[in-house]
Write a structure and sequence with these properties.
about 110 residues; two-stranded antiparallel ribbon; globular
């Protein structure tokens, strides 16, 4: 399946536009300081909008346009690793993401 790079790019672009989970929630274990200096105390529930992240024009040029080439190696190399998070990210990401990607390629 590693010989299907364009199929992988198409799947990723589809998940960028319509992620399987539109948002994720977390409980803060420590105080979060935002870039503007405001603080969110530990214990608060926060939500991260994956759809909002995936349609951010500061990250994605023409975010509403379907363009699988966004995920070519040369276009992805300088992108922040958390710009595209259809399966969440970090220690609580989806453990089945590799299986899901492989299943989409063969289905």
């Amino acid at each position: 399946m590693s010989k299907l790079p364009f199929t992988t790019m198409c799947i990723k672009e589809s998940m960028r536009l319509r992620p399987p989970v539109p948002g994720i929630g977390r409980s803060l274990t420590k105080t979060l300081v935002l870039p503007d200096g405001r603080k969110i105390p530990a214990g608060f529930q926060v939500l991260a909008g994956i759809m909002v992240n995936h349609s951010n024009p500061l990250v994605w040029q023409d975010p509403e346009v379907y363009d699988p080439l966004r995920f070519s190696p040369e276009n992805s190399k300088d992108r922040h690793p958390h710009a595209f998070i259809p399966f969440s990210a970090g220690p609580r990401n989806c453990i089945g993401q590799n299986f899901a990607m492989n299943e989409m390629k063969v289905a």
